[in-house]
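quick q for whoever's on today - can somebody do inverse folding on this one?? i tried earlier but teh output was garbage lol. tokens:
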């Protein structure tokens, strides 16, 4: 998944970082933009397998089927973001698996959320952060010349969500400000309009910072 700089001092983001690291291995292998590469033919890498006992051969076949199923699920979830880049954050409790989350991811996120004091709220947060990172990964991967419209849609969605990611302590301020500046280049084409929008987006980051730094009562 996308490289994101987190505030490592937060226990919440330490847990989120672990989740993302696990998900990254599965998602990276099934990323939709890698599917355009031409696969090597079987003849190019012909290998004569060693004979396996029947039980071992059956176990290997089951493992191959399982891996193929997981990869298909990951690819379908990634495809959902490509087809619907404007997908919005979820508000309220998440009762069903969103289309952009694979079954493997869903099981993992539910398991982690159950360890939280408020499992329903934590599951919503985790799902929204996975959605955010998938949108960010897609935005970073799409070519500027051929996918400008989709990049603009994704940039606006990500900009809208940045203050919430900061409020949830999933990203640190420096990373958010850097990403905000990069996203604005795609979100607003006119330089003067971009300047106005930049000031607006900067103000939107102030309130989460105030809430985070306010003393807890």
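ok took a stab at it. sequence:
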């Amino acid at each position: 998944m996308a490289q994101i700089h987190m505030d490592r001092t937060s226990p919440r983001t330490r847990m989120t970082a672990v989740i993302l690291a696990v998900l990254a291995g599965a998602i990276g292998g099934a990323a939709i933009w890698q599917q355009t590469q031409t696969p090597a033919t079987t003849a190019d890498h012909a290998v004569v397998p060693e004979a396996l006992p029947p039980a071992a051969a059956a176990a290997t076949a089951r493992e191959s089927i399982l891996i193929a199923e997981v990869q298909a699920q990951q690819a379908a979830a990634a495809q959902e973001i490509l087809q619907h880049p404007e997908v919005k954050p979820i508000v309220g409790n998440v009762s069903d698996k969103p289309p952009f989350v694979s079954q493997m991811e869903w099981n993992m996120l539910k398991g982690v959320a159950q360890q939280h004091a408020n499992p329903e709220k934590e599951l919503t947060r985790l799902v929204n952060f996975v959605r955010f990172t998938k949108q960010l990964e897609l935005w970073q991967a799409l070519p500027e010349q051929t996918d400008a419209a989709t990049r603009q849609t994704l940039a606006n969605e990500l900009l809208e969500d940045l203050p919430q990611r900061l409020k949830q302590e999933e990203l640190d301020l420096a990373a958010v400000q850097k990403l905000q500046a990069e996203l604005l280049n795609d979100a607003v084409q006119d330089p003067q309009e971009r300047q106005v929008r930049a000031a607006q987006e900067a103000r939107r980051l102030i309130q989460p910072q105030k809430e985070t730094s306010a003393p807890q009562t």
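fwiw The chain has eight helices and no strands. also The first helix runs from residue 11 to 29. so keep that in mind when u check it
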